[in-house]
Amino acid sequence: MLRRYLVDPAEMWWPSNLAQVSLFRALHEKDPKKKGLTRMQFFLVAFVASFAYYALPGYLFQILTFFSWVCWAWPHSITAQQIGSGYHGLGVGAFTLDWAGISAYHGSPLVTPWSSILNVGIGFVMFIYIIVPVCYWKFNTFDARKFPIFSNQLFTSSGHKYDTTKILTPQYDLNVSAYNSYGKLYLSPLFALSIGSGFARFTATLTHVALFHGSDILKQSRSAMKNVKSDIHARLMKSYKQVPEWWFLILLIGSIVLSVLMSFVWKDQVQLPWWGMLFAFGLAWVVTLPIGVIQATTNQQPGYDIIAQFIIGYVLPGKPIANLLFKIYGRISTIHALSFLSDLKLGHYMKIPPRCMYTAQLVGTLVAGTVNLAVAWWMLDSIENICDVEGQHPESPWTCPKYRVTFDASVIWGLIGPKRLFGPGGLYRNLVWLFLIGAVLPVPVWILSKIFPEKKWIPLINIPVISYGFAGMPPATPTNIASWLITGTIFNYFVFKYHKRWWQKYNYVLSAALDAGTAFMGVLLFFALQNEGHNLKWWGSDPDHCPLASCPTAPGIVVDGCPVFK
Questions:
Q1: How many CA atoms lie within 13 A of 65 on its CB side?
Q2: Among candidates 378, 381, 409, which has minimal Cα distance to 308?
Q3: Do β-strands 154-155 and 186-187 pair in parallel, antiparallel, or remain unpaired?
Q4: SS3 of 504, please?
Q5: H/E element holding 121?
Q6: How far apart are CA 136 and CA 139, in angstroms?
Q7: DSSP 8-state assignment for residue 154
Q8: Degrees (nearest 5) of the Cα angle 50, 51, 55?
Q9: 228 in helix, strand or coil?
Q10: How many of the other CB atoms lie within 10 Å of CB of 450?
Q11: Per-residue model confidence as pLDDT tens digits over 454-491
Q12: pTM greater than 0.85 (yes/no)
């Protein structure tokens, strides 16, 4: 139903698809005989090199994942390690030589437009190198110095990890009296500020899309397609039979009915009433278009999971499972919808009949859903201490940083609720002002673009993408984002500017080869070594060497392994 807005227009070009298009062309088209490697030869060379190299950061020499040399220079300084740690600090001077770490959270930097990389870089520098240090060392915002400067854990007022089992009822609801007795929940300063950025990012996305793309969306809503610029791909695709909209509506209605039915059959287990399920679907419908516009033009996907959990946390406080389900049916529905739209654009580029795309997506979804569920149950039953950081080997691939943050979010928004943390009297109440700030910030940019239409760089200032510079931290670390920015700058600015022909021929092929080689070696390492418990233990297998980076610096806070300040 969003095809006319996010697939057909030439302006919605979905940069991430270009790597796949280049790969398919390399596999199926013959290059004219010229000097140098063909794209297929280059892909094979880069694939083999990536495959072989990933054995180093993936198993043999894991310090390449977080190369934190500042900690080696000042091994006894907490401040130096907080600043220089790539894993538990701000990552100043740290870097990663691991493609999996570079592309883990923002995707491949080789396929992201330079303007988007620059916007993300501005936001990242402002957040990591200015806002967080000032809040931590200058103002001690939110009692920040009682906690690690960067952590995905939850804390008590004494700086120790928060034990959520002490405030749960047997039905997994909040035990209010136990919570009042145990004490308030606290976040690491970077985690708290990252949540605040999510508030600003959501409203900035809505404002930006309304101002810069609103008129185009209205034209297409009125079916005035003849007034919309149509590229060669769209004209060629008109020769195929289109997918009737009722095919999609059948799937949509069927999914909604089954989901609502679940709320009645397993009412006590899921905690989310039927109207909450419909609310989640409605929210997803509203925000998918503006988020899709941002992703289709910049290769960055602003999330609204924080907003979804914030809303339902106010409506259903003390219900962590309901909160998590609302996020899944709201935010995750949007993620999959945008993934399908991206695939449709790929089919658009490759001239695949729309009905074939529909069938492939439907079959793929059924197969993937079944296999994913089966593998998930197998992992839960077979891998001991899965997602338990304390119970796992330090270099284990099963520490689940993303799902640790998902758990934290269900506690923050569902179990304890936004009213206690962000409402009147809450420690983090001032972060709510970022909703208003985010909504206002795109307006001056839009006004300047109208006053100075000849300045083509002004519309490239994208406030939602700037705020994306500090999105996803945690689980992403500043080193992941900084290395992503550096890699993207090298290829999409310097190589593009000074070796444009090489960039045009090989850049997207290189991105696909790096992804493929890393993925295949990762699977091989897991089944051959890590799943069998064959872990190396030597200096190079420790990815950080910054043991003091997680220490608090407030006086009187006692944490194991850390000095106590007086």
A1: 23
A2: 409
A3: antiparallel
A4: helix
A5: helix 114-126
A6: 6
A7: E
A8: 105
A9: coil
A10: 10
A11: 888 888 888 888 887 777 788 888 999 999 999 999 99
A12: no
